[in-house]
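Please predict the structure of the following assembly.
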Amino acid sequence: MKMLRILASTALAVCISLSAANAGAGEITVVSWGGAYGNSQVEAYYKPWMAKTGHKIKSVDAPNPADPIKAQVTAGNVSMDVADVEYSDAVRYCDEGLLETIDVTQLPPAPDGTPAVEDFIEGALTDCAVASIVWSTVFAYDSTKISGAKPTTIADLFDTKKFPGKRGLRKGAKPNLEMALMADGVPAGDVYKLLGTKAGVKRAFAKLDTIKKDIVWWEAGAQAPQLLADGEVTMTTAYNGRIFNAAAKENKPFVVVWDGQILDFDLYVIPKGAPNKALALEFIKFATDTQRLADQSKYIAYGPARKSSAPFVGMYQDGKTKMAPHMPTAPENMKNALVNNFEFWADHDSELNERFNAWIAGK
Amino acid sequence: MTNLDKPNKGESALLTTADGTPLRKALARAMRRARINAFLLVAPLLLFVVVTFAVPIGQMLYLSINNRVFSDYMPRVTAYLKVHPEIGVPCEDGFEALALDLAAAKKNRTIGRIGTRINYDRSGSTSLFKSGARKAVKFKGPPYKEKFLNHSEDWGEPYLWNVMRRASQAHTLDFYAAALDFKYDANGELVRVEPERRIYVMLYQRTFFLSALIAGLCLLLGFPIAHLLATLPLRYSNLLMIFVLLPFWTSLLVRTTSWISLLQSQGVLNDLLVAIGIINNDGRIQMMYNQYGTIIAMTHILLPFMILPLYSVMKTISPSYMRAARSLGAAPITAFIKVYFPQTVPGIGAGTLLVFILAIGYYITPALVGGSSGELISNQIAFHMQKSLNWSLAAALGALLLFGVLGLFWLYDRLIGIDNMRFG
């Protein structure tokens, strides 16, 4: 009986202390991509927001944060408040009614007073999503593993005669089909027009066939630099920030080739029925203001989605490396670049991915 | 033998219990009560299984034929197409229904879902419907057909209207057709999909073949281990049992990724072979990110599921049978085949079935180590659940897998018998 009483009073005390600790402090769950990119968000967005408001953020990593959204919303059991997703997913999910709408007039203006809708780069704001960064898919190689001439163009990624060895590619139709066409000599401006035709798709797959047996497929962002480090592949496509981090923070001799890069946005969305909608919106407003977007570029080589952040982009966190030349949007990197066309992918996603799955699964 | 049923002519009354009721009736009543009690004891578990197992599967099966997106959100077009079942482009009435429905869909923010549904069967429809809806909101009145054709000549394409006609049926087998690599062409005929898009039938074949192979490999490797465990003295067999169970308790992902570092082309095994000199540095064996990776990793992970049932059954086989067979003059091989092996068949049945059914549904291991040639049907189901969001197709694929496994189960029952299966 005495034991029971001690147990009961302890439980009561724990409950009271827990609830007292939580009184007033909200918590939101933010799902992002993990790895070096996730860390940059923790440093630049989560920690400052937690320090400023006293609320907590539960950070969850996923290879693609968009994947569980439909299942959660349909089941009525949404466990995340904010998700960081790619552009085509943001548009598609908004179309399907899976996301809350975000009133962009509520976003904070630039320091000089420019309203948010004009400060964000064109395309960075949609009905349900607010962009935070511009990132791109590039390809990279280990400079110590390639002797003689080094790869300089996207065609080199598909040339196993000049540069023997395996290639790492992201598993999926996007952006491999665009890169295949550009490697085949199609100018960036014509890629999506060509990819909309049967002949163009055939041409892209034919180009991919030339290296098919040498491809190692990766799905999570951290796998690409890992494959390079393991020596599994000679060259791999990757999210540019991950390669930058491996080179700058871990001193790996990786070199990024910007020719043929495919730019994209990453955007914050709130799934429909999120448990802490209001707090989620507060977080998004904070995380996408001018200074925060510039801060994030201190930790990883992704460009801010706001024009007013550009002058604040300075040094990497080590204080030695200038970030500007490593941005996807730096002028010298944009010579043969393609901006991902989300409308094209909204239309052709099903068909091209089906064809890609059939191509990849067959021998 | 007493005849409890009918009283013989002239015989005294039939057997009764103490209170006078006929024994047969009393027996039947007691047995019924025992049956009801037994059922009540099992009822909570039955309810649990029905709710957590049968109901979700039923929902999945319903999802595979559920096609309500179009008929729910485009009611006027659905009604029009029902009244006019001819193939082809409709007249002004049909376009009027289209205009009103698209405008309503734009207002209700359902246009994205409608476009996506049509896009499954006809690429380019998402943007066509979305931009069409934006225009339709501004249409003030007829002539609708002309205005739509001005917006895009695609609205006059018979195939588009055919797709809409099929999409307007509330329940359909179209997803099953797609899951078997069939589709409906412009004339409404069922045809096989173009060769470069055929994938599911091949994946089903590969899944069933690889699962059978893995079950066979597990049996080959597990049988000797189980026999050793069952026949060693307790002290040693307990120690060895820990070696079997320890990987069982290790996280699945840890086991899978350790295979990656062992078998990859720059991994431990290849480095060892190159160091010994068996292979060249350029001739490293590809054991990872292909079918071999899937087979090796899955066999390793599913081995305990074969060893444990076999061990339990073998433990119950008395060693005196083998000794008797030997003492009667049988050679060791003959004694094994004729006396020992038939007694282990229930365990073999249980283990093989368990491993096979687990292997069929395996998703994470083929995803990590299978590369492209080691991909199974479950990876495609996951793709449609998570990336393409075509849940009806995912449900149809899952349902076909379920029917396939049930069919195999029925076959197994016919050949070996369900009752001839023990777990210990």
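The first helix of chain A runs from residue 2 to 22. The CA atoms of residues 14 and 20 of chain A lie 10 Å apart.
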